[in-house]
Design goal:
The chain has 170 residues and is α/β, with parallel strands linked by helices. It has three helices and ten strands. The longest helix has 18 residues.
Length: 170
């Protein structure tokens, strides 16, 4: 479906739900021996997706899931380092799944590692709804909902609002 402002829907709500269900099963399969997982979602969309994944995991797995919000200035990550909420979160020895909506260059995820690695997680994985495969940083998605080959000039936008739920290619 193409909309007037030159965007093409690549995932609708049902497709996103299906991708998240599959990703939840994969996360559980890779971490079935764990008692607890931490889903660290990058604000705003990554955190929303982490919440949706947490609900899906609660339906299929006996694992306790803790949500962690990660806020980062994506345009200039060096001026304001990534902030975690709740700030006193204990990650020592835990499995952390870092969640974002789109993996493009890997820059956002790489800078987020600065906030997570000093907290000594046992394992750090990455879940992304859309992987564009233009990574410039040594970051790879452990779990991908939708893999999409794009040009560098194209842009993927994920909208996760009640009135509109979808992923679009511009």
């Amino acid at each position: 479906m193409t909309t007037p402002n030159h965007q093409t829907r690549i995932l609708d709500q049902a497709q996103i739900e299906q991708k998240l269900t599959r990703m939840a099963y994969e996360i559980y399969e890779h971490n079935f021996k764990e008692q607890e997982l931490v889903l660290a979602g990058i604000q705003p969309n990554g955190y929303t997706l982490a919440g949706l994944l947490a609900r899906k995991l609660a339906e299929i797995a006996p694992i306790k899931v803790q949500l962690l919000s990660v806020t980062l200035d994506k345009a200039s990550p060096l001026t304001m380092p990534a902030a975690l909420e709740p700030a006193q979160t204990e990650l020592d020895g835990k499995v952390v799944v870092l969640v974002d909506d789109v993996l493009n260059t890997g820059k956002t995820l790489a800078y987020t590692l600065n906030a997570l690695l000093p907290l000594n997680p046992r394992k750090l994985e990455v879940a992304t709804l859309v992987n564009r495969h233009h990574t410039l940083y040594p970051v790879a998605a452990t779990y991908t909902g939708y893999s999409l080959a794009t040009t560098l000039r194209e842009h993927v936008q994920v909208v996760l609002r009640e009135e509109e739920f979808g992923a679009y290619l511009h």
